[in-house]
Amino acid sequence: MIKVGDTLPAATLMEFSEVEGNGCSIGPNPVDVAKASAGKTIALFALPGAFTPTCSAKHVPSYVDNFSELKAAGVDEIWCVSVNDAFVMGAWARDQKTDGKVRMLGDGSADFAKATGLTLDLTARGMGVRSNRYSMLVKDGKVAALNVEAPGKFEVSDGATLLAQAKG
């Protein structure tokens, strides 16, 4: 399992863009994790799935609500990573009103989740291999803080907890 001090795994996530700009075409665009995190402070949080109850009602809103404070604490970008395709993440971004605040990044084949060692097997519930719920503060591609939730819990990976760590 990834730990504090480790470099983020080499992976490509996918991001759905609704408007063309900044080198991104409309539709799914690849995001090279190493390149996108280089020289930046990233508040990264991952969760089991888009449109799922806790993720939609609590997890994503906790980062949208703390956006200004996270930016003021030196966070350059906020990333939400989920084992969903870019189209689902794009629809969820619209639903959660994350535009300009949280980058909704799809890990469709769970490659990033597997590389971090933070997977959750929800096959028995018809969801396959997913990401565990966690958050991490990433500085220049390296994990500076890591908060992994116990199964079924939402206690340490919220936006307020990561904000306190970013201020720390």
From TrEMBL:
**Could you give a GO molecular-function term held by this entry?**
thioredoxin peroxidase activity
Catalytic reactions of this protein: a hydroperoxide + 2 glutathione = an alcohol + glutathione disulfide + H2O
CDD domains membership = PRX5_like
User: How would you classify this enzyme at the top EC level?
Assistant: oxidoreductase
Which Pfam families is this protein grouped with? Redoxin
GO cellular component term, pick one: cytoplasm
A Gene Ontology annotation in the biological process aspect, one of them, is:
cell redox homeostasis
Q: Which UniProt keywords apply?
A: Antioxidant, Oxidoreductase, Peroxidase, Redox-active center
At the top level, the lineage of the source is Bacteria
* Active-site residue numbers: C55
Domain Thioredoxin stretches: 2-168
Q: What is its EC number?
A: 1.11.1.27
Family membership, please give it. Answer: Belongs to the peroxiredoxin family. Prx5 subfamily.
This molecule's function is given as: Thiol-specific peroxidase that catalyzes the reduction of hydrogen peroxide and organic hydroperoxides to water and alcohols, respectively. Plays a role in cell protection against oxidative stress by detoxifying peroxides.
* Name by which UniProt lists this protein: Glutathione-dependent peroxiredoxin
The organism of origin for this protein: Polaromonas eurypsychrophila
